[in-house]
Amino acid sequence: MAAVTADQTTQKTLGTEDAVDADRVAAFDAAVAADERIEPRDWMPDAYRATLVRQMAQHAHSEIIGMQPEANWITRAPSLRRKAILMAKVQDEAGHGLYLYSAAETLGTSREELLDKLHAGRQRYSSIFNYPTLTWADVGAIGWLVDGAAITNQVPLCRCSYGPYARAMVRICKEESFHQRQGYELLLALSRGTEAQHAMAQDAVNRWWWPSLMMFGPPDDASSHSEQSMAWKIKRHSNDELRRRFVDICVPQAEALGLELPDPDIRWNEELGRHDFGAIDWAEFQAVLKGNGPCNEQRITQRRTAHEEGAWVRDAAAAYAAKHAPAQSSTQAPAPNSAPAHHVEETA
Amino acid sequence: MSAALALGDDALVLSHRLGEWAGHAPVLEEEVALANIALDLLGQARVLLSLVGDEDELAYLREERAFRNLQLVEQPNGDFAHTIARQLYFSVYQHLLYERLAAGDGEFTGLAAKAVKEVAYHRDHAEQWVLRLGDGTEESRGRMRSGLDALWRFTGEMFQPVEGLDSPESGVDWAALRSSWLVAVTDVVERAGLTLPAGPQSGGWAAGAGRQGLHTEPFGRMIAEMQHLHRSHPGASW
Lengths: 348, 238
Fold this sequence. Notes:
A: about 350 residues, mainly alpha, two-stranded antiparallel sheet, about 65% helix, disordered N terminus, B: mainly alpha, 9 helices
C-alpha cells in the first residue's frame, strides 16, 4: 500500500490524530516489509482487517461446506480401512473450520456472525464444492487434485503477514498434505484395479481436473483482490503462478497413476521450463461463482438446514450454561446477548 | 468367536450410524465429537472382526440375518436428542462391559483395556449432553425425554449374556452388569431432571433378538447402503 507521506500529514491543519495514524501506518508498513507478523493487538488498517476477515471466512466456510461432497461417501466406502480414512478426513475438515473461525475471531468477528453471512449468501466458499461426488473415485480425485490445489495455494499462507492465520495454516497444511497423499493412493488402487475401477478413476479425473485449475482464481489480469493482498503479504504468489506450479506437479503424478489429464494441449515447454496447458473455461467458473453450479443450492440448503435444525440444541446448551454458571459479581457486566452458544459447547 | 462378532457388530453398526451425522451436526464441535466417536468404534470393530475372519468380508458380504449386533445400535439417528439417548444407553453399557473384560484375563483383555479409555469419553460425552438437553430449554427437555422413551424398549437385550462371555471365567456377571447400568443411567437421567421411562425394557419379540440375527426394518436399508459398492465389484481391492 502507499504509505501516508510526510507531505500528506503536514497538509492537515489539526494534525495530531492524523500524525498518530501516520505513525501507526508507518509502523505497520515497516513490520510487513520486514516480514514480521501482525498480531491481533497490533494496529492494522481497516482494509487489511476486512481483507483478512473476508479471506479467512471464505476459507473456514470452504472447510465446512467441503465436508459435504466427501461425507456423501462415508456410508458407502467400499472397505473398512477406506471408511476410517474418509471419516478421519471429514473430521479434520471440521477441525480446520474450527481453527479458522477461531483465527477470524481474533479480528473481532464471531463465528455466529460469519455463519449467518454464509447462510445469507453474503460470504462465499470455494466454488469447487459446488461439483458433485458421483462415484467413489471422486473421493480420490478430491484428495489428489482439490487438496493438492489447496495445498499449492495454502503453503505460502503459512508465511502470511497475519500471525494467527499463518499459524493455523501450518497445522492445516500438514493435514492437507496427508489427505492429498491418501487421495492419490486411493486413485492408484483404482487405476491398478479392475477395468471398471480404472474407468471410474479416469472419469473422476476427467470431471475434477478443470474445476481444480479454477481453484486458483481468475487469471492475474482479472483478479480484483490480488495486488493489494500481495503488497500486504497476505498473498505471496499470483494466481497464474500458483496454477502453473500445480500443473507442473500434477503432470508426472498423473503419469505415475496411469491416468490421463483431460487436456490435449498439455506439453512441456522447454524454453520456459514448465508445462503449457489448454484454455480454461472461465464462463463456467463465473457461472458456478454466481450460483449456477451443479450443487450450489444443495450445499447451502444442507448447511442452513443443519444449522436451523440444530438451533434448539445450541439454545439448550446456552440455557444450561446460564443456569449453571457461577454467580457473577455485581461489578461485572452481564454477558452480551450475542455470546454464541458455541463457546459453551466447546467443553463437550 | 461369536462374542467377537457380537461386540464387533455393535461397534461397526453404531459407527456407521454416527457417520451419517457428518455434515449435519447441530454445531461444529459436534461434527468433530461424533466423528471421533464413530472412528473409535470403527477401530474397535476392525480389531474384533479380524479375530473372526476378514474384516471386509464380514462387514460387506454378510446378509442381514448374519449380523449379531444389538437392535439398539441399528436404530436410525432421529434428532440429536434421540442420538444422544442411544449413545447414553449404549456407551454406559459398553463402558461397564469393557471394564469387566479389561479386568479379566480372557481373549478380550488387551483390546478392552485400550477401548475402555475411548469408551469412557463416549460415555462422558453422552452424559454431558443428557444433562444439557434435559436441563436446557422446554423444547430440549421434551426431545430428550422422547429419545429416552423411544429407545428404552431396546435396552433389555444388552443384558442377555453374550455367547462366549457367559461363563464365570469371562469376568462378566450379567445380572450385576444390568444393575450397575441401571444405577448409572438412572443417576444421569435424574440429574438431568428427567425420570427413567416406565415401560418394559424389551417389547415382544422385536427387541431382544439382534444377537440371534433378528433385526429391525431400518437395518436392512442401512446395510444395503453400506454394502452396495463393495458388492458391485466382486473380488475387487480398494
